[in-house]
Amino acid sequence: AQSVTQLGSHVSVSEGALVLLRCNYSSSVPPYLFWYVQYPNQGLQLLLKYTTGATLVKGINGFEAEFKKSETSFHLTKPSAHMSDAAEYFCAVSEGFGNEKLTFGTGTRLTIIP
Amino acid sequence: DTAVSQTPKYLVTQMGNDKSIKCEQNLGHDTMYWYKQDSKKFLKIMFSYNNKELIINETVPNRFSPKSPDKAHLNLHINSLELGDSAVYFCASSPPGSLQTGELFFGEGSRLTVL
User: From residue B82, how far is each of B26, B28, B60, B115 by CA, in Å?
Assistant: First the structure.
């Protein structure tokens, strides 16, 4: 069975600082990995995804993530945090049988300190 | 012209009541879903329909009954509501051939509070 662990339910960074949100996965087959963002009182929105190919993937709003098979990780980064990045971030995994089997992590709330 | 719209956004009701949440998508997608997000933000799939056919039912109590009259609509009916049903329910959809995209389009959620 697939699973996702997000380390740190709350992360605070200063505006302009590096953002690093951690995600580790477990999957019996090569996984498809995703990061979604949820702004207050809104639904989730896809930030970026890894399916196959290049292990460093770029998404919207300057975010990127790197798939590291040896570490079973898919950490999300952004070089310089902006106030508008404050949101809840969810890592998710699929075993590639269709995204109907997306399994989400428990989320990380990102707070930006002015 | 919201892509995935849910109604109502907020629902407060008493234990034991029956309630419904409606979802409509105007994206032309074949697959629709219901997810439940609990108070700790944990998001778990409940149901998935593809072209009006149920393809996923994730051990949800049979008090929950999804209905898809057509591929653009997926409604959720809940009988005999319990305190533990309080959550935010998200509807989502995904396009055909989404195996390689993995992208779900979510509605804004329906917050259900059972008193």
Answer: 32, 34, 13, 8
Residues 6 or more apart whose Cβ sits within 8 Å of residue A101: A2, A94, A95, B45, B56
What order of strands is seen across the sheet that includes strand B19-25? B4-7, B19-25, B73-78, B64-70
Beta bridge partners of B4: B25
Tens-place pLDDT, residues A37-71: 999 888 899 999 998 888 999 999 999 999 999 99
The whole-number pLDDT of residue A103 equals 86
B contacts of A43 (beta carbons < 8 Å): 4, 90, 92, 106-109
**Residues from chain B contacting residue A88 (CB–CB below 8 Å):** 41
Nearest to B104 among A88, A97, A102 (CB): A102
